[in-house]
Structures are given as C-alpha cells and as structure tokens.
Amino acid sequence: MKKDLSPEIKAVEKYGTDRTCLIPILHEVQKEYRYLPEKALRNIAAMLDISLVDVYGVATYFRAFSLEPKGKHLVTCCMGTACHVRNSPGVLEEAKRTLGIDAGETTDDMLFSLETVNCLGACALGPIVVIDNEYHGEMTPAKVKKILKEVEKQEGRG
To answer: 1 in helix, strand or coil?
Structure first.
C-alpha cells in the first residue's frame, strides 16, 4: 500500500528540484494547505538544497503567499482608484459586516478570509470583488452581501 505523499513532495516531484521551480512549488503547496506551514517550507528547502532563509524570502516577498492559514473562501475587494470612486469602501464595509471580520482576517470557522488589493486590473467593471478567483463586477454593498450569504448557505452556515 502506497503511503500518501505530502503536498510538498508531490509538488517537488511535479516541478523538479531546481531552485527556479520554487515559486510554482510554493503555489502548489499553498493550494493544498491554504497557506505555507513552516514544516512544509523546511521540507522544500531541504529537497531543493537551498537555505530556509531563501525559501522564506520568496514566501514573504510575494503577496500571493501566506504564512498564516486562510479560509476556504478568499474574498478580495479592490480598492484601486477606479473602484474607490465607485464606492469600493462601501462594498468593503458591507463585506466586513457580513463576515464579521476586518480586511486581513479570517473567520473563526476558517470559512472566509477577507483581503484588499490596490488594483485587480478590471477597472472598467469596478468596483470589483473576487471570491474564489471568480470576478464580480459593478459590485454594490447589497450585491456583495447577497453573494456572501449565498456562499454561507452553500456551506451550511447562515
């Protein structure tokens, strides 16, 4: 019987042990754990024969990576200029109120994480909210509340 391999071993088997593969390996591992645990970073450093400091340097440099656990559903509100003038602050406030957390936080049940970004590159559709990589344009506070409540309902919460 074959033992289940850790996400970091699977990622290294998929991409190889060259240090240039570090970023895709980190993405794969984060996809599994929803963050980058210290033990996984240590294992990756050992398998790629690079220093743990170098692995941490990459993991902390890119905003896409997190050293803290994230919720099952990632909610990202764009706060760029085009979205801001179309009331992204109001959309963010409603998301915070609906989820009961501030930007940068995760719900206690690990169901949602709420983040803000400076621009998502879809300015004509602003304000934009991305939930689990799905873009929702022309967002309003009422729309974001409705979408978040639908996700909660699908998860058996709310």
So the answer is: coil
What percent of the residues of the chain are helix, what percent strand, and what percent coil, each to the nearest 5?
A: 50, 10, 40
Question: 85-131, pLDDT tens digit by residue?
Answer: 999 999 999 999 999 999 999 999 999 999 999 999 999 999 999 99
* Rama region for 52: left / alpha / beta (φ>0; ψ in -120 to 50; rest): alpha
CA distance linking residue 51 with residue 41, whole number of Å? 10
The whole-angstrom separation of Cα 40 and Cα 53 is 13
Q: What is the DSSP string of 26-95?
A: HHHHHHHHSS--HHHHHHHHHHHT--HHHHHHHHHHSTT--SS---SEEEEEE-SHHHHTTTHHHHHHHH
Beta bridge pairs of residue 113: 74, 106
Q: What is the distance in angstroms between the CA of the first residue and the CA of the last residue of the chain?
A: 41
HSE (side-chain half, CA atoms, 13 Å) at 108? 2
How many Å apart are CA 18 and CA 49, to the nearest integer? 9
